[in-house]
Structures
1.
Amino acid sequence: MSRGLAGCLAGLALAACATTSPPAPPAHPGGAPLVGPEWRLEDLLGGGIIDDSHVTLTLAADGTGAGTGGCNRYFTTWKTKGDRLTMGKGGSTLMACAPALMNQEGKYLRALETAKSYSFAPDGALVIETAQGPLKFRKS
């Protein structure tokens, strides 16, 4: 066998054994991924949130999302394309809480279902733009 052919075959054998890594989850310049951490809501549609209410969002790599709306646990689906973000129609548990908390939770869940895009603020906050306005989250 000629040296050229042997070199080609060796190169093909090495290329066949090479593995490729899956793409990394979307991240902002500071490196905090969109997928994985628990994000805690700090601003709802530009109006703040009720003190000590615990509203969260966690996005999994399999396209599912979950969190707490301040009273109830909820679940949803999500997908991105570039900076575009869409959320599926979600579901939640049906516990009752104080009327103000239930009102805030309803506004949050309705807004989340209309997500259009996401970005990261210079301070690392996750901002999800919705049809009703922005949802601003901080990594827990």
2.
Amino acid sequence: MTDVLAPNAPLLTDWTSDKRRRFRREVVTFQHRLLDTGLFSDEALAKLLDAHPRDSLDICTMSRKPMSNETWAGGEANGMKGKDLITAAQKGRVWLNVRRAMNENPLYKPVLDQLVAEFSKATGAKILKAHGSILISAPGCQVFYHADQAETMLWHLRGHKTMHLYPAHEPYLSDADYEGVVMRENLGNIPYEQVLDAGALPVLLTPGYGVTWPLHAPHRVVNGESFNVSVSVEFTTPTSMLTNGTFYTKGVMRRSLGLSPKTRATPTALKPVFWLVSKILKKVAPIRHDALKAHPRQFDVDLSAPDCIAWRPGHGAPDVKLEAAA
């Protein structure tokens, strides 16, 4: 049984001057004591799920042999208790993202505040805001190749998973593809082919370890044969804010004016201008399509169904659909 973390005890345990130097430039792993808070047991997570708004809970599944063009299938668990959702993630093929749980739940919020304060001091990063989500997922589940808008760190707690991290430049990530991410044209997914794995850095995460990576670095995640729990913290800094604003503005230029801007080559001194233009564009011509909201719900979580997935009429297991299309 895990001891409860003593008040004011540090969460980040092994950040060094070398890691501070490599932060943002490279993939950096670290150790932490987040599990010792006692907030990530089955019982604690079940209570969290019971209290958390269901419209802020992503429920997903995916095939066992995903194709490069596959994305996750979205589902719902209306009326299901938290303990049953935990069971579904332990015995089925269910992936849960408890969005902003670390911000919104009063038991978890002080932990997020401490985590962010320690990380900011250790790295020297000026963190303007941070969102902490709790990821709960079944053995063998995957997160497809994608890039995050924010700077990100993953604090792993239970089970084991392997993150495959790629450089944030061609051929792993094009300017046009990332513009689609910030403009919410997709769910963050970007084109992936297995040949890209030659340039990937695999990082095995076990309980008590975490990882952070350069802004926009594409990555994918594969769970081991174990129930997994992690905390994903996305944080905004002046660097990410200005960079994303630049990508947004140049994305509009590419799509509306037919231009082919070299977004990553934008001089640092000009990024505040593009960021300001992005703010104006979002106000006068807001995005009307949100890929996350438009993503259909294809199944219901059901403990009696195979893999705890009860497909709705017209939908079915991704494996079946992909084999039929082959």
3.
Amino acid sequence: MSTREQQSFFDLGTQYYVVARFSAFAGLTPVCGNLFHHAIEMYLKGYLSSKLKMTELKDLGHRLGKIWNRFKRDISDAELNRFDQVILELDKFESIRYPERILSNGMIALISLKRQPHACGSSKSKRPEPVYEIVVEEIDHLVEMIFQKASVNPKFFTNSLNSQAKAYLSKENEASLV
């Protein structure tokens, strides 16, 4: 694919990412998780767009695990394994884009800006509802790493954002994207 197509994926990813961070601060679950899911999907497909045709990208679907594994296979860096749990947690949100699963199974939704040492995770919960967890700091580092591995300058996509978008992108964000 062309540079233009890769830029389109990264541009959409950045828009989803900014809105996802805003929704995290606003406490909007499960929408926050869905938006982060879309952002990461766009970034990963942005990287892969330089290697795959659009039809092949569509064939990957929306399952982050599948897209992530293709990305990791191409990058071939064991350091990426540290993000496997983040991808697993975000991928859960794809199953609750529509309300029927929430209505039938319920949900426990957690949003944290930073990883809490004793945070209630899915393995620690005694309740029967599925747990959907967002840790914004971990997603920020994942996004930063995707830009690095893709050799894409994040400022190309963030410099044109207005002041409100930049504020939510940089608020409590240790990753260097703005």
